[in-house]
Write a structure and sequence with these properties.
Rossmann fold, Nucleotidyltransferase, domain 5, alpha/beta, 8 helices, single chain, 2 domains, five-stranded parallel β-sheet
């Protein structure tokens, strides 16, 4: 037997499934209410006790978890062409633990900055310009964001020619930045994987900071991905027969 414990820390329920990889079978399942207020470790232990009553105590090879307990990240996307920015942002957010609550194109105005602040996003995606293309828009928007009251992380995914300058502008203003490859390196070509990976990392950091999850992390082998991405990955693997 090669037992693995798979855990999902959801916003309502903490769910567990014990599987035997040698026999490719489910050994048992259990669930408990997710205890955000009392610490997620309480719900974890309750679910584990239920599972052990059904299948006994097992020496698991690994205990792997996914989570959506802290809720999805609210993301605002800022780019050059609104339609392209929205499409890129939505695709990048898919399965990565974020949802797009606003999208802006061209040069931002002061009123739009105030509107973004009122949306209370958890994350900004700052794009604009193909590689070697338009530079002015993303630089203008970076300067406005640098002078704003926004304190949320910014993923920079625009024209690679000026991306370092954009990062420097925001960093000097005390903003937290993550620079990745251009989400639209050339017209008609979306490159969402680097942005998606960064969203995933930011989401997981937020999940770890959820009340009590740092204690749970000591008892398992890692929170590997957001729940939506886990479901998407499972569907993709099922489709190709893996």
């Amino acid at each position: 037997m090669k037992p693995y414990l798979l855990i999902d820390f959801g916003s309502t329920y903490t769910k567990m499934t014990a599987v035997d990889l040698d026999q490719a079978e489910i050994l048992g399942t259990a669930s408990s209410l997710t205890t955000v207020e009392d610490g997620l470790i309480v719900g974890y232990r309750t679910a584990l006790e239920k599972l052990e009553k059904r299948i006994g105590q097992l020496n698991y090879e690994q205990r792997l978890a996914c989570s959506s307990a802290a809720g999805g990240l609210k993301m605002v996307a800022i780019g050059l062409v609104p339609e392209l920015t929205v499409e890129a942002a939505k695709r990048a957010a898919m399965g990565a633990g974020a949802r797009v609550i606003g999208a802006y194109g061209f040069e931002l105005s002061g009123a739009e900055i105030e509107e973004i602040i009122s949306l209370q996003p958890d994350l900004l995606l700052l794009a604009g310009g193909t590689d070697g293309g338009n530079k002015e828009t993303i630089l203008h928007n970076a300067r406005l964001l640098a002078g704003s009251e926004l304190t949320v992380p910014v993923i920079i995914a625009g024209n690679k020619t000026v991306a370092p300058t954009v990062e420097e502008t925001l960093t000097k203003a005390g903003k937290t930045c993550y620079r990745v490859a251009n989400v639209l390196p050339e017209l008609g070509k979306l490159n969402i994987e680097p942005v998606q990976a960064e969203i995933r990392e930011i989401f997981l950091k937020r999940i770890i900071q959820a009340k009590g999850l740092d204690q749970v992390e000591k008892l398992i082998d890692g929170i590997t991905m957001p729940t939506p991405m886990a479901v998407l990955s499972a569907a993709e693997r099922t489709a190709i027969g893996v």
